[in-house]
Predict the structure.
Amino acid sequence: MTIDEFWEIVPRTVDARDQADALQSELAKHEPEQILQFAEHLERIVASGYLWDLWAAAYIMKGGASDDGFLYFRGWLVGRGRDAFEAALADPESLADRFEPGDAWNFEDESLLYAPRDAFERATGDDRAFDDDPRTAPRDAPEPGGQSWEDDELESRFPRLTRPLW
């Protein structure tokens, strides 16, 4: 499965009531090897978002973001599709133009991160092979990329995200 095929699958599930379940169903239609390839792309994409500026966006939008909260935020962001994800990597403040307070999302989706594992188990009846495959291992670096931030500088660094609407 190519990266483009990965990004073709995600939008098919974006409007589903339970996106992770819809993604799992989509993936279960594929061969186990393709599900593993999807999982590898997902891990790399999520890791590419391990950036201080994107963490600041998550922190602002969610009213705080722990390590796990930031991971789940990146899962949610992948679920919004390639354009939204890549725009947020290039400029986290682009999220202010795409999402409004009161949007139907809480800006995190942990279950989307587990959809490939669940689909693999559904397709093969074996979850150990998925867990043992090195392609499915988490890839975050020891530290996020870019420049760290403090709470008191968020408004000056991210004026559009910190506007009163959030």
